[in-house]
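**Reference record**
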Amino acid sequence: MSAPDSSPAASSRLSVRVTALCWVLVLLDGLDLFVYGATLPGVLADKGFGLTAVTGGTIGSLTTFGMMLGALASGVITDRIGRRKIILTGVVLFSLASAACALAPSVEFFGGARFVAGVGLGGLLPSAIAMVMEYAPPWRKNLPVTVVMTAHQAGGALAGALGMVIVESLGWRSVYWLGAVPIVVVLPVVAVMLPESLTFLLAKGKTERARAIADRFSVSLDAFAPEPGPERRGGLRGLFAPSVRMTTLLFWVASFAGLLLVYGVNTWLPTMMRAHGYNLGSAISFLLVINVGGIAGMLVAGRLADRFGSRPVAITWFALTAVGVGLLALKMPLLVTYVVVFLTGGWLFSAQTLIYASVGAYYPADSRATALGWVSGVGRLGAVFGPRLGGILVAGGLSAPGFGVFALAGLLGAVMVSLVRRLPKPVALPRSTQRA
C-alpha cells in the first residue's frame, strides 16, 4: 500500500467529503425542524385535531426544549463516545419521531413526538458543525460552516415548499411521513461514508484506529493532534478557563438572542403574515423566501468572515436583522415585502451561524464540540422562548408589534457579540505557505 501523501489536496478532498455528508444531514435536520412552522396553519385549520394557537406555540417551545437537551447532552457525551455516533443517533431519533407525528392520534401525542424529534435535532447540529470545522483546511474555517448551514435553510425552504404544495392537497400528516424517509435511505449511506473525528480518537488514545482512517484518506495525523498548553482542560471545565470564561457567557447570551429569532420567526412567520392580511399561500411563501435568503446570506457571510473575521460580521448581521425584522411590522407592497423578507433571512440565519463559527476561533479543537454543544444548548432557551412568545403575541392579536419585539433580540445579539474580546490578528501568509 502506498504511503499517505499528506498533501493539501488530500486534506481538501476529505474536507469536501465530510462537508457534503454533513450538508445532507443538516438539510434533513432543517426540514424536520421547520416543517412544523410550514404545517402549523394546516394543523390549526384541522378542527378535528383540536390544536389552538397557544398550544401550537407551546409545542414549538417543547420541540426547542428537546433540542436544548439534545445539544447539552451531545456537548458532554461527545467527549466519551465520539461525534459520529451522536450524529447517527440524531438521525434515528428525528426520523422515528416524524413518523410518530404523522400517526399522532392527539395533540398530546403530537407534542411528545415533536419533543423527541427536538432531542435528535439538537444533538446532530453542533456535532456536525464541529466535525466540519475539524476537517476544514486551516486557511478556510468559516466558509465550510456557513456552507453546511445553508443546508439548514435549504431544509427550511423545502419545508415551506412542501407546505405550499402538499398541506392543502394531501393534508399536514403527509409531510411528516416524508420526514421518516432518512432512516431508510440516508442513514445507511452516511454510516458507511462518514469517518469518526480524528481529534476525538487521538484524545482517547485510539491511535491505531485514527491512523487507519488517516491512511485511508491519505492525510497526516499531525493536524489533528490535541493542542498542548498549561490551560488545557476537557469538558465543561474548559469553557470556564480564565482566558475564555467571559467569552463563554457572552456567546451564550448572543446564542439565546439568535435562536429566539431563528425559531420564533420561523415558527410564526406564516401565521403572523396571514394576520397582516396575506392569504394562506402567500403567507407560507414568506417562509420559503426567508429561508432562500438565508442560503444566500450564509454564502456571503462565510466569505466575509474568512476575510474580516466572524466576530465583526456577526455584529453587523445582528444589527441588520433587527432592522429587517422591524420593517415587517409595516404594511408594504407585496414585492417590497418579499425583498425585505429575503434580505432579513440572509442576515438572520447567518448571524446565528457566525456565532458557531466564532466558537471555532475562541476554543481549541479538543473542546470545540463541547463549546458548540453548550453554546447551542444554552441558546436553545431562546429557541424555547421564541415560539412561545410568538404564540402569545398571535393569540393576543399583536402580530405587527410582535415583529418589533423580535427586532429587540437582534439588537441584544449585536451588543453581546460586540463585547467579546477581539482575537489577535494573525500574520498574513501566502496561500501556498498556508497550504504547505
